[in-house]
């Protein structure tokens, strides 16, 4: 299915159907990540319940340390 991920059209594998699976796919499941879908910030407790639909606009913002 095609979504817009961080501003770029992206084809996701069929196995990805919710936000938890998306974060695992990108190896972000253990990081602090803000997830926004279609302009709405999704609470971490709802990631598994929030399905991903074709055409969704998803923003993933994670923090990187450094100095």
TrEMBL record:
Taxonomy, superkingdom: Bacteria
InterPro entries in the cross-refs: Beta-grasp_dom_sf (IPR012675), Mopterin_synth/thiamin_S_b (IPR016155), Thi_S (IPR010035), ThiS/MoaD-like (IPR003749)
Family matches, as PANTHER family: SULFUR CARRIER PROTEIN THIS (PTHR34472:SF1)
NCBIfam families according to UniProt: thiS
Name recorded for this polypeptide: Sulfur carrier protein ThiS
UniProt organism field: Evansella alkalicola
């Amino acid at each position: 299915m095609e979504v817009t991920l961080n501003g770029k059209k992206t084809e996701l594998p069929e196995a990805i159907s919710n936000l938890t699976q998306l974060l695992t796919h990108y190896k972000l499941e253990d990081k602090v990540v803000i997830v926004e879908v279609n302009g709405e910030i999704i609470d971490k407790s709802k990631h598994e319940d929030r399905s991903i639909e074709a055409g969704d606009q998803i923003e993933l913002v994670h923090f990187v340390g450094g100095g």
